[in-house]
Amino acid sequence: MELRVAHPNKGDTVSSILEGLYPDVKVAYLGDDLTDEDAFRTLTNRGLTVGRRAFRKTCAQIWLKPPLDLIGFLEQWRSCVSASTAPVRILLLMQPDQEVISVWRDSAPFWEKHREIIRQMFAPVTQALVEDGLIGSRHAVLDIATGPGEPALTIAALVGPEGKVFGIDPAPEMVEAARRATDHLGFRNAQFDVASADRLPFPADTLDAVVSRFGVMFFPSPVDAVREMLRVLRPGRKLALAVWHFAERNPFFYTLQRVIERYVNSPPPAPDAPDAFRFATPGKLRDLLGEAGAMAPSQRLLQFTIQAPISVEDFWTLRCEMSEKLREKVAMLSRDQLTEVGRQSLEALRGYSTDRGMSFPAEVLIVSGTKNRPT
């Protein structure tokens, strides 16, 4: 039902409704503005609260972005409502996966806008994945968490017209951007679809390589995702994953982060929460590959230079738009604070400016493993 009240506190109305319900009745409340916060608080420990995706604090347990997230939620609710623990089950199903997906959906327009610069910046990482994945002409390759189509389209050029590259991403807006890039560049051997890493829409033993560039750290269940990668690989073929090394070794991240943290508090992420540096510790992802069943899992440290042929000012814009965390923190600043953060950020970034644009030393871990051959 739709709740419309004459007074401003929707929590009181929700309390009245709850008094007329049996304790085991399943309750979900969907709200999209500040007037719904009282209802969210009232339903704490009693039902499931769902907020529409926005850059503000909320008491809601789940974020949604209409229309696709809402449709997915309703489908999950219908399938779970027969169980006595429906709110708990759906919460487990949709978090943190749906929240992470919503973040990337919001970021998609910016990643498409800066697609070519991002391709250039991370080209050395793409090359490392190609090398460690043993990718060559005529191969069938899967790129997981492809974003707006990279490294999938770079690999599509490498495998040639007789090869095939599939790119998947859970964010529909990213997939749409990748398809536009495919059409613009004229590729006929690349295909992009909406899919999750732990439910790959491919038959077993069909692919020559699987890669993911900066994706695995955001997977809801990395070990299940790796098992799926191994399932779809042909025996004896390889998967290769790229993850960031420690933040303090990557000024691409810390230069702006250190400035903004002077004004906005940034609590550390929960242990093993989806985060850019979830697998920064050497050996963590390699051991996970072994746990998932990969043969001869290995890792190497890739030290390279991030090159961006743009000005300091343009890089400041690019980084703020690429990162949901930075966008959210910047939105919390007052006008005077924003002016000062901008000044300090540009000053810090000038230390990485050259006559060819921005240049940052960077470190990434390349982790790979092989699918076992049948005996």
The CATH class of the largest domain, by name, is Alpha Beta
* Range of strand content: 15-25%
> Spans of 5+ residues with little confidence (pLDDT < 50)?
84-96
CATH topology name of the largest domain: Rossmann fold
Helical content (DSSP H or I, runs of 4+): 40-55%
| Structural class determined from secondary elements | alpha/beta
* Reported CATH architecture of the largest domain: 3-Layer(aba) Sandwich
Write the layout of secondary structure elements.
Layout: H1 10-19, E1 28-31, H2 37-42, E2 48-52, E3 62-64, H3 68-80, H4 86-94, H5 97-113, H6 115-121, H7 123-132, E4 140-144, H8 152-159, E5 164-169, H9 172-185, E6 190-194, E7 207-213, H10 222-232, E8 233-244, H11 251-260, H12 284-292, E9 295-308, H13 312-322, H14 324-331, H15 335-349, E10 353-354, E11 357-370
Parallel strand pairs: 1-2, 2-3, 4-5, 4-7, 5-6, 7-8
Antiparallel strand pairs: 8-11, 9-11, 10-11
Helix pairs in contact: 3-4, 5-9, 10-12, 11-15, 13-14, 13-15
Q: What report would you give on this structure?
A:
The protein has 375 residues and is α/β, with parallel strands linked by helices. The protein folds into two domains: 10-95, no CATH class; 105-370, Rossmann fold (3-Layer(aba) Sandwich). Helix content is 42%, strand content 21%. It contains 15 helices and eleven strands. The protein has helices spanning 10-19, 37-42, 68-80, 86-94, 97-113, 115-121, 123-132, 152-159, 172-185, 222-232, 251-260, 284-292, 312-322, 324-331, 335-349, and strands at 28-31, 48-52, 62-64, 140-144, 164-169, 190-194, 207-213, 233-244, 295-308, 353-354, 357-370.
